[in-house]
Design goal:
heterodimer; A: 234 residues; mainly alpha; B: 476 residues; six-stranded mixed sheet; 10 helices; 28% helix
Chain lengths: 234, 476
């Protein structure tokens, strides 16, 4: 086994990683309500996508193209972060997009870099920042329930697929001849079905007029359900 | 002297014969002997563990709850509720219960090269679908996969099977397939069940070692260990003056017929040796020259097997010992049964496990045992020393990866007597740290040589026979 062969166990599975990134991007697209936000988000996505490709390529061939991709993607991402911090007229729009883009960048980096002991922590940090974007969108901009619920479901699916990609990469590897897609698609199907079920259930329950239930009562109900689930895990 | 590894041919096992169309193997191609017995299939006990996949989502739920509470936004409670559904969903998925059967077929890809095609088939014999079944075939650690993959992740419906097809490059020696590891996850990925399936398969590429350097320490019994003095044996030593009492069989009768002069022919006397092959399998010996390359313990096990084959063939009495996470000891003996026991211990004894000891979290891969403590190693060394008799020679196989390895060798020299060290070199010089490790190992070799210990410095990329011959030349 060569070093290159051994490195196949240091990369997350490709299919699940790719779909996870698509879900994470989808969450940010949902949150970007204004035209300016969408433009800046598009610029960021281009920069982050080039960054992911550059990192992958740099690990295989350390040539001028991969170096150029990394430098170019760095410049585009830095510029997009600068624009996000300064261009949108409303401060809440900046606050909404900035953690999301940085989170996406960390998320893509965690799934692209070949050997890192911090991969899972980087994924969680990236997901955490996108969650901040969702919460900011809910608190400061008053995004609709539909957007918030779908964003949350999409973010959890992205994290789940990323975790699955990492575990598959560690245990099975990502060699060209290694078949992992059947298990990856099966898990993707499960995740999407649960996400769909969660969205339908939560939106369905919200239509029963939960606004009339005391807010503290709602909190108590949710905390109780979390405790119930955790106890069931034991 | 050039390497004269005697490559022998024989084929056993009906499966391989059918693959090779009954053709005999040709010269120059190593003996490839595959033994596969379905009656010996076994499944180890299973380990169930939580992967912790959804713990992060619990944090997401709690953060959303807190922010929703502080900002008095019911919509954020819905975000938390989505998380609760995801966290609760694994409670409704069934725990995987893998019930699989395994079969393995080997075939030589062509007569010209040493590559073997391996096809390992796993069938779901249970009545439940395995939605995420990760299979890692137990490729012998010294054989590298040259084509295809020995791993896959798939789903298996009841009765469905999956075949892993790959090629391995065969090296000289006996190579036993390790148990195949199966990791099954439930649909949510929250639970993982680990089990192993054994299909005893062995590839033997027999290349006889030209020599094994042994000290002259005999038990005054006739046998094939050559010593320097003259006497009875097979190999010619010298012609001497006849002295009354010399047996008639040693008289040179041709010379007597020619010149009526009585002379006696002497031969190298040959004796049986008693040897103990001791493998240093401590945690520090599980080092490899590169990530993914076989570690030193794997090379040591290979060397021990080949040394034993050569010594058994010469009718010596051979035993096996190992120090590491456990103590392994098989007293010296000979005969077919003992030889089989030797190889069985070599391939299955926990002390010689090819899985490095580690304190890694089991969630990141198949579980691994922890290394032994230093007091435990001392106790194991005492056990081995006690087993070594006054006439037993010790072949210590160690990569000399740390100072403790030298201490072990010197302890054996003081307690046991004749010790030969065979050291697979797994160092390289790619980084500063690796260069230092190489220099330190060279210093250890020099120290042992200065103490009068014969040391074989073996680069595993080169044939073991060459390294043994070079020591023999040095000793002469």
């Amino acid at each position: 086994m060569t070093i290159a062969d051994a490195n196949q166990f240091n990369r997350p599975a490709v299919t699940s990683s790719g779909v996870a990134v698509v879900f994470a991007i989808g969450v940010l697209v949902l949150l970007a309500g204004s035209f300016v936000q969408r433009q800046l988000l598009f610029m960021s996505i281009v920069g982050i996508a080039l960054f992911g490709l550059g990192v992958r390529r740099y690990q295989q061939d350390r040539d001028s193209i991969s170096a150029g991709l990394l430098v170019g993607s760095g410049l585009i991402t830095a510029a997009s972060i600068w624009y996000i911090s300064t261009v949108p007229a409303e401060f809440t729009h900046r606050l909404e997009l900035l953690p999301g883009v940085i989170g996406l960048w960390l998320f893509v980096g965690a799934l692209s870099v070949q050997r890192t002991h911090w991969r899972r922590q980087l994924i969680d940090l990236g997901v955490g920042l996108v969650l901040v974007a969702i919460l900011v969108s809910g608190v400061l901009r008053g995004s609709s329930e539909l957007v918030l619920v779908i964003s949350a479901a999409g973010l959890i699916v992205a994290r789940d697929l990323a975790e699955n990609a990492v575990s598959l990469g560690t245990q099975i590897g990502t060699g060209e001849s290694t078949i992992t897609q059947p298990a990856e698609f099966r898990h993707l199907g499960y995740s999407v079905i649960v996400a769909g079920g969660a969205v339908v259930t939560v939106l369905g329950v919200s239509r029963f007029g939960i606004e009339e239930v005391p807010f503290v009562g709602l909190i108590a109900l949710l905390v109780a359900s979390v405790v119930l689930v955790l106890v069931a895990y034991q | 002297m050039a390497l004269t590894e005697d490559v022998r041919q024989s084929i056993q096992g009906s499966q391989l014969e059918s693959v090779l169309d009954g053709r005999p193997a040709i010269g120059g191609v190593p003996l490839i002997n595959q033994q596969s017995d379905p009656s010996h299939q076994s499944s180890s006990e299973t380990t169930v563990r939580s992967t912790g996949r959804w713990r992060g989502v619990v944090v997401l739920v709690l953060i959303s709850l807190a922010v929703g509470l502080l900002a008095a936004r019911p919509s954020l409670l819905l975000v938390a509720a989505v998380g609760v559904v995801f966290v609760a969903a694994p409670q409704f998925t069934r725990r995987p219960d893998p019930d699989l059967s395994i079969s393995r077929e080997l075939s030589r890809e062509s007569d010209a090269d040493d590559r073997m095609a391996v096809e390992t088939t796993l069938r779901n014999t249970g009545d439940r679908r395995l939605v995420d079944c990760r299979i890692i075939d137990g490729v012998p650690s010294l054989l590298s996969v040259t084509d295809g993959s020995a791993r896959c992740a798939t789903t298996l419906a009841p009765g469905e099977s999956v075949t892993l097809s790959y090629s391995v490059e065969v090296r000289p020696g006996r190579h036993r397939f390790q148990p195949t590891t199966i990791l099954c996850r439930d649909a949510s990925g929250a639970l993982e069940v680990e089990t192993t399936l054994s299909e005893p398969t062995e590839i033997t590429s027999a290349a006889r070692l030209p020599t094994v350097p042994l000290a002259v320490q005999d038990r005054h019994r006739s046998g094939p260990l050559s010593v320097d003095s003259s006497g009875e044996g097979i190999e010619f030593h010298s012609v001497e003056e006849y002295t009354p009492g010399d047996p008639p069989s040693r008289i040179d009768w041709r010379r007597f017929a020619r010149s009526r002069e009585l002379r006696s022919v002497s031969y190298h006397p040959e004796r049986i040796a008693e040897l103990l092959v001791c493998i240093d399998a401590r945690a520090s010996s599980y080092r490899a020259s590169n990530p993914g390359e076989p570690h030193a313990v794997a090379h040591s096990v290979e060397a021990a097997g080949r040394l034993a084959d050569t010594l058994f063939e010469s009718t010596h009495r051979v035993g096996l010992a190992a120090v590491g996470r456990e103590c392994c000891l098989l007293e010296p003996g000979r005969g077919t049964d003992h030889e089989a026991r030797f190889h069985q211990r070599l391939s299955t004894d926990p002390a010689l496990s090819l899985t490095p000891p580690s304190e890694r979290s089991p969630a990141s891969g198949p579980s691994r045992p922890e290394p032994a403590s230093q007091p435990d190693i001392d106790r194991q060394l005492s056990v081995v020393s006690e087993a070594v008799g006054s006439t037993t020679q010790l072949l210590l196989v160690t990569p000399l990866a740390d100072e403790a390895a030298v201490e072990i060798a010197t302890r054996f020299v003081s307690e046991c007597g004749a010790v030969t060290v065979i050291s697979p070199d797994v160092t390289n010089d790619r980084t500063d740290g690796q260069q230092v490790a190489r220099i330190e190992r060279a210093a250890r070799l020099t120290r042992l040589r200065r103490l009068g210990v014969p040391v074989v410095d073996w680069d595993p990329a080169e044939p073991l026979g060459s390294a043994l011959e070079s020591l023999e030349r040095r000793l002469q």
